[in-house]
Amino acid sequence: MRLADKVALVTGASRGIGRGIAERFAAEGARVGILDLDAEPCQAVADAIMAAGGTALAVAADISDPAQVETAIGKLRDEFGTVIVLVNNAAIMPTGTLHETGIEDFERCLAVNLRGTYLVCRAVIPGMLSVGKGSIIHIASVTGMVGLPGLAAYSMTKGGLITLARSMSTDYAGRGIRTNSVSPGTIDSPMLHEFLAQQSEPEAFRAQYDAMHAVGRVGRIDEVANVCLFLASDEASFVTGANYTVDGGYSVKGDQPQD
Ligand SMILES: NC(=O)c1ccc[n+]([C@@H]2O[C@H](COP(=O)([O-])OP(=O)(O)OC[C@H]3O[C@@H](n4cnc5c(N)ncnc54)[C@H](O)[C@@H]3O)[C@@H](O)[C@H]2O)c1
User: Fold this and answer.
1) Does the C-beta of 233 come closer than 6 Å to ligand 1?
2) Is 57 a member of any domain?
3) Which of 52, 102, 129, 186 has the highest local Cβ count within 10 Å?
4) pLDDT tens readout for residues 37-86
5) pTM, entire model
6) Where are the beta strands (DSSP E) in the chain?
7) Is 93 part of any domain?
8) Residue nearest to atom 7 of ligand 1 (CA)
9) Which domain CATH number covers 28?
């Protein structure tokens, strides 16, 4: 029960890595807000957590919309109290080199991955300041640290989140809020499967991704959730402004996928 009595909010929690983090937090005693675009899948995750003995509330919102974000976080605050653990996990991943990325895809990527993170932080931080504690985790990516082809806009936002965690840590560390980023390598998730489906030879591409990681395989969702749990818990009381790679050694190995 490493998060007993903590209220947590996980964005993009209706599937994939976000769902895994939310379920892990709930299993460790947190009361968890499940935020994602659509109400039904959020409720399904909240129901699954409650069926497993945890406590969760579905709060659907588009994180790029300020009014929806305020409403969702207000609802969570009314039901569970002040959010003191926030995981900014929701993101989209348009593909393409920079000049091939359409302006709508480019702007939507910024609106969700960066503006959305800003809006959720803006809604949650005053509560954290009022109680003098909080842990904010931005889910970034190794693409924010090393170059990967065909992911220009996405990588730009992920680099931004790493920098943002560092910058926020200097603003808030003295007031009890720790801010860190987590940079996964390739993780077996719906986002990966959608990306592979766009490739001409998905199986071969997947094998390349396995080989690019020093441990010889892509990661699992629970391996990201474990690190988030540590950063959310009081065990990480002296950790702020850090970027934790959870990448099976990808960023130190530095291979690139071949065409
Ligand atoms: N899967 C990987 O290999 C990998 C690697 C590195 C980093 N990441 C990062 O991990 C996080 C989760 O990735 P995933 O693989 O679980 O992806 P995913 O696509 O399965 O999940 C992302 C979730 O975010 C939600 N979302 C998208 N736009 C939203 C919006 N405007 N408002 C609210 N919710 C919104 C989606 O509905 C979805 O449920 C992302 O930040 C991603 O960039 C993933």
Assistant:
1) no
2) yes
3) 186
4) 999 999 999 999 999 999 999 999 999 999 999 999 999 999 999 999 99
5) 0.98
6) 7-11, 31-35, 55-58, 85-88, 134-139, 177-184, 243-246
7) yes
8) 141
9) 3.40.50.720
